[in-house]
Amino acid sequence: MISTTGLDVAKIKKNVIAYWMQDRLNWPVKVISAARASSMGATAGSVRPVRGCVVSAKFVQGRSLDLAEQILGLKPGELAMGAALLRLNRLPNASEFDLAGYTNAAAYPGYPPGLGSNQWVLTADIPATVEKIAGPGQTL
Question: Which of 26, 65, 88, 139 has the most CB atoms in a 10 Å sphere around its CB?
Fold first, then answer.
């Protein structure tokens, strides 16, 4: 996570929510591996609760799985067997997410820095629709 010492977090979160609302491509999405999607019972069009890291759709939508891995800073091969793209059904309110900076600064041990995408961490379950299931070699 990023250090928020000295920052007006409430104002930043207000600006983040305004950013999400500006454009459909800014809307937060979650990318998960095919194995995780299967374990959640996620099928195209189904609604599942999500939490954890999310990014703006424009950084991953339409990208190859290899490139999405690199953008997000996932472990190499994490999406090799496929992935699911889940779009939040509603925007989180300020108490339901934390600021996380950009993926080019790895936030978790064992994960490489990404090519760079904004990211936030959902701290509450938010319903999301499985917008796409991508098989190996396909795009999100």
Answer: 65
In a domain, 2, yes or no: no
95 vs 80: CA distance, rounded Å? 34
Instruction: Enter the pTM of the model.
Output: 0.93
DSSP state of 72: H
Evaluate whether residue 87 is within a structural domain.
Answer: yes
Is 25 among the domain residues? yes
> Residues 30-41: pLDDT tens digits?
999 999 999 999
* pLDDT tens sequence across 54-113: 999 999 999 999 999 999 999 999 999 999 999 999 999 999 999 998 898 866 778 889
139 DSSP assignment: B
Contacts of 80 (CB under 8 A, 6+ apart): 65, 136
> Residue 70 sits in which domain range?
9-134
- Work out how many domains the chain is built from and give that number: 1
**Tokens representing residue 6 in the block:** 């000295």
